[in-house]
Automatic annotation (TrEMBL):
The protein, known as: Uncharacterized protein YndB with AHSA1/START domain
Superkingdom per UniProt: Bacteria
CDD domains in the cross-refs: SRPBCC_CalC_Aha1-like_6 (cd08899)
Protein family membership: Belongs to the AHA1 family.
Domain Activator of Hsp90 ATPase homologue 1/2-like C-terminal residue range list: 36-151
InterPro entries: ASHA1/2-like_C, START-like_dom_sf
Any Pfam family hit: AHSA1
Organism in which the protein naturally occurs: Microlunatus capsulatus
Amino acid sequence: MNQTRTTPATGHPLGRLGAVVREGGAVLLRFERLYDAPAADVWSALTDPGRTARWIGSWTGDPASGSVLLSMTAEEGAPGERVQVDRCEPPTRLDVTMGTADGPWPLTVRLTEEAGRTRLLFTHRLAEPYDASAVGPGWHYYLDRLDAALEGTPVPDDFTAYHPALAESYPVPAA
């Protein structure tokens, strides 16, 4: 895994922060992570229900039908979220749309393998009103959980270490 500095106040790795960018009229929340694992292993952690349960949640249904129901691990008591599979190209590309109470969340994951290491690019296309201060720490938390799942270490379970602590780390750039 990457060597990174940490913020003195929170201890969170600075190199793991996502970024909010404006691109082609869209506001995107992006995260990039690098893993010491082949793309097929990272893909499995992203899509295999036996592995997703450890870091994001369990899902039911048949992805070939175009949608599954995701019950997020850290969202106790919340109803499952319908996830529409928009595009799936194992082991390099997954585009989904999560149905949430805040409206649809278009998400993309791209994996590229370089010399046995895999680069993950996660993008969430935000809708107005752009609230990256809440969404950014949330995805940061879940991606840190993915990191731990891939490394075989304990997954973070204290969301308060992420929000509100990292809220100011995800400002929306001016238009």
